[in-house]
Amino acid sequence: MAEKPEPTRVLYCQVCGLPAEYCEFGPDFEKCKPWLIQNAPNLYPDLLKEAKERQVEKVAENLQAVGISSPGDGGGAREGQSDPSGSNSASKPEEIKRLPGGKIKKKEKPEVIIEKIVRNKRKCVTVVKGLDLFGVKLSDASKKLGKKFATGASVVKGPTEKEQIDVQGDISYDIVEFITETWTEVPESAIFFIEDGRKVAAA
């Protein structure tokens, strides 16, 4: 009498439910990979190799991170000390604003801009911008300017939506002296005139 053949044992994937050798054709092979490495490494030797390589890379990354950030192993800069390159690993890198084309935007210094505008070919207005950057209250400044030059002065929003002081008449001849005497926090070197579309230093 012939012996009964033993039934073939099929290993089914616990993730997708397919036989393990068919996982790669299933919809969730990526999800199956950890289970296959654990339970059927002989079916997918490449997966095992891949996993080992990934593990080695991870260990190398961890060692590198420890070498840079750990203050105890001498690999990185100790706390309170700067490394040989002169930068302290504890301090954050300085943020640099880059303009289109790779140009670096320098941090702008506060400036007072004075511009004389002639309207209707007769009416002249002297525009003062930037006093607020020095902590000067514009409403107070407009009152003082109006009183000093016996003219109308008001705080208005300019073309760029920033507030400025419009003073009626041409007072550009001695406004610099008045500004530096009234508001000592504004240096003469920070005051500029706009003449023919160019910025000219008052000092």
UniProtKB/TrEMBL annotation:
It is found in: Cytoplasm. Its main location: cytoplasm. Keywords: Cytoplasm, Ribonucleoprotein, Ribosomal protein. Residues 112-183 form the SUI1 domain. Interacts with the 40S ribosomal subunit. The SUI1 domain may be involved in RNA binding. This is Translation machinery-associated protein 22. It comes from Vanilla planifolia.
